[in-house]
Amino acid sequence: MPNVLVSGASVAGPALAYWLGRGGWDVTVVERFERLRDGGQNVDVRGAGREVVRRMGLEDAALAAGTGETGTEIVDDSGRSLAYAPQGGGDSDGWTADMEILRGELSRLLHDRSAEHARYVFGDEITALDDRDGGVDVTFRGGGQERFDVVVLAEGLSSRTRDLVFPGVRPRHLGLCMAYLTIPRTSADNDRWRWYQAGAGRTATLRPDNTGTIRATLSFLTDARGLEDLTPSDQAHVLRRTFHDAAWEVPRVLDALDTAPFYFESTGQVRLPAWSRGRIALLGDAAYCASPLSGMGTTLALTGAYVLAGQLTTNPHAAAFAHYERVMRPYVVKAQHLPPGTPRLAHPRTPLGVRSLRTAAKLATSPPARTLTRLTRRVPAPAEKFTLPDHPSPGR
Ligand SMILES: Cc1cc2nc3c(=O)[nH]c(=O)nc-3n(C[C@H](O)[C@H](O)[C@H](O)COP(=O)(O)OP(=O)(O)OC[C@H]3O[C@@H](n4cnc5c(N)ncnc54)[C@H](O)[C@@H]3O)c2cc1C
């Protein structure tokens, strides 16, 4: 039985573990953190990604684990609603989709579904990889050593192990930093995704969740590099300084920085000329992060896992990796093509820019302008046009 090491247990890793495990592979998943991470907000699962969830038998569970978000609105300094778009109907429509699930909840569902087919190791990570003589010798931080037929890195945007295989890869920064916080829910909250433009390139949002808390983001345009590598307390300092004079619920979010765990990222994309070397392949954000601004990261991760597993269970690794890349690359290229003006348009710098965005949002959400709303939705429609291959895959 061939064996595989998958590094990273968020979305791409567990999805791959499931499909390979079902296909008769001996699967080990290693995750750097001590447990599944529950940080972050809702993720978009659309088009082909939704189909993968369906084929895993998880669609009902994912819908049942939804956040209960009913729509999206733009608010002013005092929280007054300026524009409102209700939840979309199909799996590709609207700012608020019909499947709105927290990344952590989706990760848990994928993990639980794959757990009977894979061995999970938490709190460890790869420190060395030696691809030779028909296998990969892996050394772990915890001291273990093991040989695998194939290694797949699904470690996200800032994958460190990727450096061992593709030295010097740096994500392309998009000029926007984002902090995701989970904060206490108060009576001032509702079940809408509320957006507030604070000017000076800053935006804050609040979203309901299904765990009794509120998911907040603070995002800001910046040319500064390396903020994602600062300590959490230094990142909190940067956020306080950047948002010190912002109105609406921003002071409440800043207050929560002392107690709420948060996830900070410098949004970026990963564009690589190849996604594998020898017996080691990259998957999901580690290979082709499209950024949260694309709304496609989770969909690409799920789709890539499905395609890669289908190939590995039917072909030798070299042909499988080549085919995985041939099938996925055009889809990834479309998904990484962000609408012009992203992220600046949603983060206006001047009062005039803020007023213009609010006016545009009012127009886009008014009943006669539903067509315009479709044009302004976050997901680039062409990127959804991907038909999942019907490979003789396990589990179907
Ligand atoms: C905590 C967290 C919160 C997020 N929040 C959002 C959000 O709110 N909105 C959004 O659009 N996207 C969010 N994302 C990103 C989103 O999950 C991905 O864009 C998408 O789902 C693709 O997933 P992925 O599995 O490829 O990568 P990721 O989801 O980034 O997962 C990578 C996994 O690999 C693990 N890992 C990293 N390095 C190592 C290592 N050296 N060894 C072993 N394991 C390692 C990480 O801990 C993580 O579990 C978040 C990611 C994380 C990790």
Short recap of the structure:
With 396 residues, this protein is of the alpha/beta class. The protein has a domain at 3-69 and 97-170 and 270-339: FAD/NAD(P)-binding domain. The chain is built from 13 helices and 18 strands.
Question: Keywords for this structure?
Answer:
396 residues, alpha/beta, FAD/NAD(P)-binding domain, seven-stranded mixed sheet, six-stranded mixed sheet, 13 helices, 26% strand, globular, binds flavin-adenine dinucleotide
Per the CATH scheme, the topology name of the domain at 3-69 and 97-170 and 270-339 is FAD/NAD(P)-binding domain
- Mean pLDDT rating: 92
Category from helices, strands and their pairing: alpha/beta
Largest sheet report = 7 strands, mixed
Terminal CA distance: 20 Å
The shape is globular
